[in-house]
């Protein structure tokens, strides 16, 4: 069990911690940040989610740099990412922070792309690395979720809802990168229909 895989396991373990922090009826009070009252449980949820996001960045970097890529890592790393992000979005829907229809689009895209990756591997193709639209999607997802957990804080008197801006940018790039991934792999469907 190498270091990148351990970081992936830590990220998976953080998922139930993240859920419990946000769904248990714990009243730890509130903190005020930029004039916005934020429940302490949500602050801790944001900290746990940020820690998970950092492990996501680190495990991939370490694995590639030190040639520690394993089959477990190829399977568990993207699964752990999707699990914690989807968990966060579902909880945010229950909190009324984001619309359910938008989260449904995000979940459907993730399932569709995951299914396509399985078909690509099964047919002997090469799974494409994340392109820039996918990287923007991931970054805006993570930043948006953290800001949403911090009650969509604004900045001073302007009170710009940065979390929702990040969320809708994320939604746009979720759709765009999903379409792009299917276009890049369209030969899989052409090959299967020719059989």
Describe the protein's architecture and organization.
The protein has a two-stranded antiparallel sheet with strand order 1-2. The protein is mainly alpha-helical. Helix 1 packs antiparallel against helix 2, helix 2 (40-65) runs antiparallel to helix 5 (132-149) and helix 5 (132-149) packs antiparallel against helix 6. It has 7 helices and 2 strands. The model is unreliable at 154-159 (pLDDT under 50).
Question: How would you write the strand order of the largest sheet?
Answer: 1-2
Compute the gyration radius: what is it?
18 Å
Calculate the mean pLDDT score and round it: 85
Largest sheet: 2 strands, antiparallel
Q: N-to-C SSE series?
A: HEEHHHHHH
Task: Tally the helices.
Answer: 7
Unreliable stretches? 154-159
Count the strands? 2
Give the oligomer, counting copies of the same chain as homo and different chains as hetero: single chain
Which of globular, elongated, flat, extended, rod-shaped describes the shape? globular
Note the gap between the termini.
41 Å
Defining key terms:
195 residues; 2 strands; two-stranded antiparallel sheet; mainly alpha; single chain
Overview in brief:
The protein has 195 residues and is mainly α. The protein is built from seven helices and two strands; from the N terminus they run αββαααααα.
What's the SSE blueprint?
Elements: H1 3-23, E1 30-33, E2 36-39, H2 40-65, H3 71-94, H4 100-122, H5 132-149, H6 162-184, H7 187-194
Antiparallel strand pairs: 1-2
Helix pairs in contact: 1-2, 1-3, 2-3, 2-5, 3-4, 3-5, 4-6, 5-6
């Amino acid at each position: 069990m190498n270091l990148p895989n351990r970081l992936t396991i830590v990220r998976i373990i953080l998922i139930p911690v993240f859920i419990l922090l946000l769904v248990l009826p714990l009243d730890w009070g509130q903190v005020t940040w930029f004039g916005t009252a934020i429940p302490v449980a949500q602050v801790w949820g944001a900290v746990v989610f940020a820690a998970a996001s950092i492990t996501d960045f680190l495990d991939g970097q370490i694995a590639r740099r030190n040639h520690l890529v394993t089959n477990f890592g190829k399977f568990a790393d993207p699964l752990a990412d999707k699990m914690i992000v989807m968990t966060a979005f579902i909880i945010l829907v229950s909190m009324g922070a984001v619309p359910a229809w938008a989260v449904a689009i995000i979940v459907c895209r993730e399932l569709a792309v995951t299914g396509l990756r399985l078909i690509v591997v099964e047919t002997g193709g090469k799974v494409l690395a994340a392109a820039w639209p996918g990287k923007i999607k991931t970054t805006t997802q993570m930043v948006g979720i953290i800001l949403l957990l911090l009650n969509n804080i604004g900045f001073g008197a302007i009170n710009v809802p940065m979390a929702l801006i990040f969320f809708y940018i994320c939604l746009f790039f979720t759709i765009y990168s999903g379409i792009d991934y299917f276009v890049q792999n369209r030969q899989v469907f052409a090959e299967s229909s020719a059989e």
